[in-house]
Structures are given as structure tokens and as C-alpha cells.
Amino acid sequence: MPELSLVQLRHFCAVAELGSISEAARRTHVSATAIGAAISSLEQTLGTVLCLRERSRGITLTPNGHHFYREARRVLRDADDLLRLQHEGRGEYSGPLHIGAFATIAPVILPELLEVFEAEHPGVTIDITTGPNLDLVEMMLSGELHCFFSYDVFSRSRQLPVGLAMRALYHTELLAVLPHDHPLARRPHLSIDDLKDEPMIVYESNPQRHYSSPALGQLRPDMKVRYRTREYELMRAMVARGLGYSLVMNPMPAGRTFDGGRVKTVPLNPPLAGTSVVVVLPDGRWQHPATHSIVELAHRLAAAGGLGASQ
Fold first, then answer.
1. How far, in Å, are 3, 75, 107, 197 from residue 8 at the CA level?
2. How many CB atoms are located within 10 Å of the residue 137 CB?
């Protein structure tokens, strides 16, 4: 598809407003030849005549030229607004701000992030989306999200699409999840051998499986898998009722389950597997002011031990 440039649009609008190629060249400090070539290129791309060149009357817009001029001015205003927001309005953005999070870490990341963001940016409209990584990536590529928070499952798989980048917030490790009153839950840390006689509830939701399954298969090929589930709250409720232990990547909330049970997380020593909690955002030096604000805040909170970084 033929493309238009902002330079072409600016040259055309200057001619339309001044009624003269030579005057437009003088005002924009560009040669008259370059101005004329830009207009000719536009007309060729659009397949229509935008202006009539008459020696006695100068430049006169055709009906299509008038219509195109109005649309070109709107595009240029929007482009100028984007640049102005980047350089001057990072703290003044009013929304809507669209952020996402991998479903299982959303309860740990988003509430604190939103609480502080609303205090620092009152009046900003925020939309939240949670779900699997694949859905979040597709929404980023379509422009539906400004950014989203997840585990780094992209470095190993090399599946982060062109046009997206990620920034690490903090390192994370696999934890053992046990009933709150289980004898092993009283220990400061556990080894895989400590869990060898315990039935296991495999939490199969990515990216948990991406890190835990290969490591477990290598270290404990005889592990006693009793149940498998993709539902995080179901796994926690089953653990609380003593049906087995599970492994989750922190940050993950412990405490009460939906049915009133209690679970506790215990670190593994030596660590079984690790990754990072990351924010995925558009690649490039230019960032939408909304993206800049929320990412900057996330880094600040994580550095202070928030967003689950201290778990």
C-alpha cells in the first residue's frame, strides 16, 4: 500500500494555506522544487488532483484538495499532540490507560499499583485486563493494551514478537505450597527430597509448568502426582484440605482460600527454578505517556519491595 509522510502533508498544507508554492517554500525554509515534488507525489499516491497551478492566480485547491486539506490538518494536529505529550505531558495524561496482567499474579501486582497510581494521577481512567500471556501479547500487538505484567516466559522460548520489549522488575523463585498446619510448613525452607513422600498437585498453568515441570522431571522422576489442575484457586483449596502440596512461582498470595482453608508457602533450598516478573511494553525510544508513567511507578514500587518483590 502506498504511504504518505508527515513531511508531504506539512508541505501540502502550507501551500493550501498560503496559496503559493514559492511562499510556502520561503516560510518552511525548503526549496520550491521540493514542495512541488511533495505535492506531485501526494497526487500520484492518491490518484487525484489536489490543486490547480495557475500563474495568474497561484495555487487553487480542487474539491478533493479541500477535503484532503481538512483531513491532513487533523492528522498533523494529532501527530503534534503525540509529540507534545511525550515531551511535556507525561504527568498530565488523563486516560484511558489500558493495562494487563497474567491472571495469577494480578492480585499481587495490580491492587498496590493501582492504589499508588490513582493517588499520583487522580482522574485517570484505567481499564484492566487479566488472562493468559498469549491473549495479552495479541492485545499489545493490536494496540488494545499499553503494557502488561507477567513472568518472563519469553527469554527461553524467544517468542516475544517484534515490536514489543520487556523490562524486569525483580527475580522470582518456585515455592512449595502446603497446608498451613502441615509439619513441613513450619520449616524456613525445604528441599525437593523433603517432599518426596508427599502427594503432589501439579499446577499446570503457564508459566508455572514452563519452569517447574522440566526441573521436577530431572530431580524427582518418581514424584507422586495425585492431581493436576489449571485453576489456581482450586489448587490452593485442594492443598489447604491436605490433598497434596504444589509448587508455584512467587509472587503468589498464601493465606485463606475461597472455602476458608489456609495455605502457606515455603522457599526451596537449593532453588529449583527461577525467572523474573516483567512488564511488557512497546519497543522503541518513544513511549506513550501512559506507558511511561505506569512502568516508572512499577519499577519504583518493586525496588522498595512492593508488588510481591519481598515475598
1. 10, 12, 48, 72
2. 20
- From CA 196, how far away is CA 183, in angstroms rounded? 14
Q: What's the count of helices (H) and strands (E) in the chain, helices before strands?
A: 10, 12
For residues 29-44, average pLDDT: 90
Instruction: Indicate if 94-311 has the same CATH topology as 6-88.
Output: no
Question: pLDDT tens digits, residue range 144-187?
Answer: 888 999 988 887 767 788 788 899 999 988 889 999 999 999 99
Distances (CA, A) of 179 to 34, 238, 263: 75, 9, 5
**pLDDT value of residue 210:** 52
Three-class SS state of 218? helix
Q: What's the CATH number of domain 94-311, 3.40.50.11030, 3.30.200.20, 3.40.50.150, 3.40.190.290?
A: 3.40.190.290
Q: Which fold does the domain 6-88 belong to in CATH?
A: Arc Repressor Mutant, subunit A (1.10.10)
This prediction has a pTM of 0.67
List the chain domain ranges. 6-88, 94-311
**Cell triple for 36:** 512541488
CA angle, corner 154, sides to 150 and 156, nearest 5? 130
Q: How far is CA 79 from CA 5, 104, 180, 287, in A?
A: 11, 38, 56, 14
Over the stretch 262-288, which tens digit does the pLDDT of each residue have? 999 999 888 876 788 999 988 876 666
Return d(Cα 149, Cα 210) in angstroms, integer. 17
Residue 231 has φ and ψ, to the nearest 5°, of: -95, 120
Give dist(CA 123, CA 294) in Å, integer: 14
DSSP character string of 241-306: TTS-BEEEESS---EE-TTS-EEEEEEBSS---EEEEEEEEE-SS---HHHHHHHHHHHHHHHTTT
